[in-house]
Amino acid sequence: MSSWISRATASHKAQLVTTAIVSGVIVAGAVIGFQQAKRIYKVESVKSSIPDINQEHEATRINEYGAANDIFAPSKEDERSAALAHRARSGDYDDELILEQLARNRVFLTDAGLAQLRSAFIIVVGLGGVGSHCVAALARSGVSHIRLVDFDQVSLSSLNRHAVATLADVGTPKVFAMKKRLEQIVPWVQFDCRNELFSEAAAERLLQGLDGKKPDYVVDAIDNIDSKVALLHYCKTNGIPVVSSMGAGCKSDPTRVFVGDISASTEDPLSRSTRRRLRALGVKDGIPVVFSTEKTAPGKAQLLPLPEDEYVKGSVGDLGVLPDFRVRILPVLGTMPAIFGLCVANHVILEITGYPHEYLPSKARDKMYDGILGNLQGLEERLTRATGEEAVGLKIPITQDDVGYLIEEVYRGRSVLTGLSTRLALTRWRKPKAGFVDKRYLPGQKSTLLQLRDLVCMTKEEAAKHEKEVLKGDKTPEDLYDEEVIRLVEERMAEEARFERLR
């Protein structure tokens, strides 16, 4: 090794090469050292520029709405209203003035009812068109403690349906816009603003009560399905009274807005998705909801499709403000969210004060489900006799609740063949290979081998033909129906199979 170095250093060319390499290493080291020193200097410079907490700095000019004061500076009226509200919440407000403002409610609900309302603590989650009108009505009616939960900001497009927001509020969080505007009307109300997204992980914290007491009522005015299901499931599981607003989008008929149990809400994709997700979690009823039975029709507003050029750009999911949050434009007539919100507020007021109320049922469908169940029982008995077995005492493992679920949730209240919605029936789709009767259990107990995913919805006339040619005959569904019908049935059966695994 030493002899090689001696020979190398003896060569003039080798000396030049060695010198160049050493020089390069030195220069590179100097450059790297300079850059490192420069970075350290910049970091120290930034650190030294950060003022202490007691120093005057631009950061101190952030208002309570999370915006710079020179952008959303409060008006003189806002400042006066905020000051009055602060004094009112501190007790410096004549109670006689409050009672005078609530005089009409007082004579309607009586002193006892109004007292219950004034002492109630209500949480409203979602402050769009529905939630904002609900909060405004509750505050004006006497509720004195309201928690507002919403992550979103007021936008220009919000103003066609928001209860109190103005142009001056565009760009500010909805929770603070609500508080600021309502303080000018009901300065004594205690608003607890939570500018954040409701989620399953945050449910316990956002829905906690006051002074160890559960909320008197929770209002669900969310249009994000994941948050909606998480809220309703938490309230139902923990015994917290809750009322939910279903979709007001694409609705225009105020005479078809009802208050009823979630199991009865129909003709609404948001309602259907919510019911199915809750059913998978073990909740199928017991939640009051405001919903519309209005059906879509040619010429009526529809959910607008996403422009093709947006698909070309890449991931459609990136267009939403949140993962899985809707990215398409939902047509909304500004009056309908207000109607939904006022109906929700009305329900809460009646419930808290104990005022007598009995709502008109949206549809008397129990008798229809009973009829469909009876027809299904008759079908199974006929099929059993056709195989030569005795059908006396035969039972089917299907309930009225199952019938309603299949008709409303899986088949949307329509025949899979023609889309007709009258004279409906449930029938097997295919002839079972293993026979109709379950012989695995007690000899004296006869039941059919029937599952929900075996059934399809048709009209009675269509079901009779299907029974004759498929269930008793030699044909298959593929022999009778076109590819579109086969595809639709397979999709609905696969959908039901997925939900069945969750139950």
TrEMBL record:
Bilayer topology: Multi-pass membrane protein
GO cellular component, one term: mitochondrial outer membrane
Compartment(s): Mitochondrion outer membrane
Residue intervals passing through the bilayer: 14-34
Protein species of origin: Coniosporium apollinis (strain CBS 100218)
Domain spans labelled THIF-type NAD/FAD binding fold: 104-360
Keywords, in A-Z order: ATP-binding, Ligase, Membrane, Mitochondrion, Mitochondrion outer membrane, Nucleotide-binding, Transmembrane, Transmembrane helix
InterPro entries: ThiF/MoeB/HesA, ThiF_NAD_FAD-bd, Ubiquitin-activating_enz
Protein name: THIF-type NAD/FAD binding fold domain-containing protein
Family, as annotated: Belongs to the HesA/MoeB/ThiF family.
Stated role: Catalyzes the ATP-dependent dehydration of threonylcarbamoyladenosine at position 37 (t(6)A37) to form cyclic t(6)A37 (ct(6)A37) in tRNAs that read codons beginning with adenine.
Domain of life: Eukaryota
Main location: mitochondrion
PANTHER family the record matches: TRNA THREONYLCARBAMOYLADENOSINE DEHYDRATASE, TRNA THREONYLCARBAMOYLADENOSINE DEHYDRATASE 1-RELATED
GO process terms (BP): cyclic threonylcarbamoyladenosine biosynthetic process
GO MF entries: ATP binding; tRNA threonylcarbamoyladenosine dehydratase; ubiquitin-like modifier activating enzyme activity
Coiled coil residues, start to end: none
